[in-house]
């Protein structure tokens, strides 16, 4: 193949290609398809082809075992280091101050978070970040944060990177065209994407846009182990898509703003050129996306419930075996067939924290009140479960095979951290539903000592 043809391949726009998998577990864990022609036998030649600079992005300690070692090599027109010094900038409602509001142990539910119109207030993906809750902190590399993003404007000559951790982004309304150093990702509702620590990206939106973000400090997301399930099932590696290289050689004369979230605060720096100047890359540290419709659901086919961990898409492990910093769990459309079983979610008190969101449809345990674009938080050991109406209905339902959650996609961020809720979450957002507790008030006793 001659060089010009190979360059064309490098510039191929993003497309679905199941041969590219960010979750590949091959011995080399490398995605070399895009730049073999640049550096066939080494990463960092004395002079790179086409006059490019080589830059490594490390996503793990150099010394991590091969199974967890992550890095990519980027071949770019100018290296990332060419910028003016970072200065503090306004960070709106983004915070990692977990002591700003009174501790709140109650069940919490939020109405859909409002999205201002662009004619009222312009918000892009970064200025539209609102921290809802979280725990831990990035300095010690142990913690999580849950953010809501509401925006109506594309990022123009602005990019963002998170020095603190990884973003798992769940769009709920409006699609996101995300330009990254690795290429472009179009992410629509019912898809998710993960932008890992340090990766620069800029978000284009197409109207009023809203979604959820799970941020983890100190671990990367990975597929859960399958144990007795075997080699296939849940989220399969082949369905995770990574972008192909895309670049622009664009000068912006001191007017391109690079925003870094560092130790929970935002900083901005100016530079003269677009940071999306990576002509080719290879490596196993990449952004990626996943369509939730590809999740292979496994569930009880006899009686009782499997625990919701059976619906885990991605997990960010803590250092304690079996305990996650946070899991991303979904409740997709599926068949319910369990015999002699109360089929909705069971009543529950958990040693983990459960934040739930709804991308579309109606959630089975609470058909009213929990709406797309809203959320709920059931904190550590805070009781929760189906509302009174759901209990009465499901206790009397004739048990036949039935479709559950058709047209619906609810999800849960489940964490081993005891999370604090921010002032924005409790007050400023003006979305907290103070009547939530009432949905259980109608539950009545059915106890009858003489009737077994
Ligand atoms: Fe629960």
UniProtKB/TrEMBL annotation:
Alphabetized GO MF terms: homogentisate 1,2-dioxygenase activity; identical protein binding; metal ion binding
GO BP of this protein: L-phenylalanine catabolic process; L-tyrosine catabolic process
Catalytic class of the enzyme: oxidoreductase
EC number: 1.13.11.5
Domain Homogentisate 1,2-dioxygenase N-terminal: from-to ranges: 37-292
Alphabetical UniProt keywords: Dioxygenase, Iron, Metal-binding, Oxidoreductase, Phenylalanine catabolism, Tyrosine catabolism
Record-linked SUPFAM superfamilies: RmlC-like cupins
Pathway: Amino-acid degradation; L-phenylalanine degradation; acetoacetate and fumarate from L-phenylalanine: step 4/6
Residues given in the record as homogentisate binding sites: 363, 384
Active site, UniProt feature: 305 (proton acceptor)
Signal peptide segment: none
Record-annotated Homogentisate 1,2-dioxygenase C-terminal domain positions: 294-447
One of the record's GO cellular component terms: cytoplasm
Catalytic activity from the UniProt record: homogentisate + O2 = 4-maleylacetoacetate + H(+)
InterPro entries xref list: HgmA_C, HgmA_N, Homogentis_dOase, RmlC-like_jellyroll, RmlC_Cupin_sf
Cofactor(s) needed: Fe cation
List of residues binding Fe cation: 348, 354, 384
One protein family per Pfam: HgmA_C
Protein function: Catalyzes the conversion of homogentisate to maleylacetoacetate.
Family: Belongs to the homogentisate dioxygenase family.
Description of how the protein assembles with itself and partners: Homohexamer arranged as a dimer of trimers.
Listed NCBIfam families: hmgA
Name of the protein in question: Homogentisate 1,2-dioxygenase
């Amino acid at each position: 193949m001659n060089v010009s043809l190979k360059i064309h391949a490098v510039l191929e726009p993003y497309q679905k290609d199941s041969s590219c998998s960010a979750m590949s577990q091959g011995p080399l864990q490398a995605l070399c398809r895009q730049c073999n022609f640049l550096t066939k036998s080494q990463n960092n030649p004395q002079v790179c082809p086409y006059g490019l600079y080589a830059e490594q992005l490390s996503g793990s300690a150099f010394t991590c075992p091969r199974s967890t070692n992550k890095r990519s090599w980027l071949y770019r027109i100018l290296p990332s280091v060419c910028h003016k010094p970072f200065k503090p900038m306004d960070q709106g409602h983004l915070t990692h101050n977990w002591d700003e509001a009174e501790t709140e142990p109650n069940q919490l539910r939020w109405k859909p978070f409002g999205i201002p119109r662009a004619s009222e207030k312009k918000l892009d993906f970064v200025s539209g970040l609102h921290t809802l809750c979280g725990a831990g902190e990035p300095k010690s590399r142990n913690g999580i944060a849950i953010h809501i993003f509401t925006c109506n404007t594309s990022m123009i000559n602005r990019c963002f990177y998170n020095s603190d951790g990884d973003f798992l982004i769940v769009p709920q309304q409006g699609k996101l065209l995300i330009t990254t150093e690795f290429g472009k990702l179009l992410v629509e509702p019912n898809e998710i994407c993960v932008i890992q620590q340090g990766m620069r990206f800029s978000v284009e939106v197409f109207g009023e846009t809203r979604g959820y973000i799970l941020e983890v400090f100190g671990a990367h997301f990975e597929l859960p182990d399958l144990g007795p399930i075997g080699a296939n099932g849940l989220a399969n590696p082949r369905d995770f898509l990574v972008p192909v290289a895309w670049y622009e050689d664009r000068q912006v004369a001191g007017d391109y703003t690079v925003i870094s979230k560092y130790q929970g605060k935002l900083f901005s720096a100016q530079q003269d050129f677009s940071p999306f100047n990576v002509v080719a890359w290879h490596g196993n540290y990449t952004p990626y996306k996943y369509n939730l419709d590809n999740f292979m659901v496994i569930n009880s086919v006899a009686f009782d419930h499997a625990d919701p961990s059976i619906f885990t898409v991605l997990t960010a492990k803590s250092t304690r075996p079996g305990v996650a910093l946070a899991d991303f769990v979904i409740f997709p459309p599926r068949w319910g067939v369990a015999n002699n079983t109360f089929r909705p979610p069971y009543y529950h008190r958990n040693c983990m924290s459960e934040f739930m969101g709804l991308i579309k449809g109606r959630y089975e345990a609470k058909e009213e009140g929990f709406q797309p674009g809203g959320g709920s938080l059931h904190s550590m050991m805070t009781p929760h479960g189906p509302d009174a109406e759901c209990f009465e209905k499901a206790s009397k339902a004739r048990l036949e095979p039935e479709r559950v959650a058709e047209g619906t996609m609810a999800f849960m961020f489940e964490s081993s951290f005891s999370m604090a809720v921010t002032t924005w979450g409790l007050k400023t957002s003006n979305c907290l539903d103070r009547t939530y507790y009432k949905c259980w008030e109608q539950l009545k006793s059915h106890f009858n000592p003489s009737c077994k």
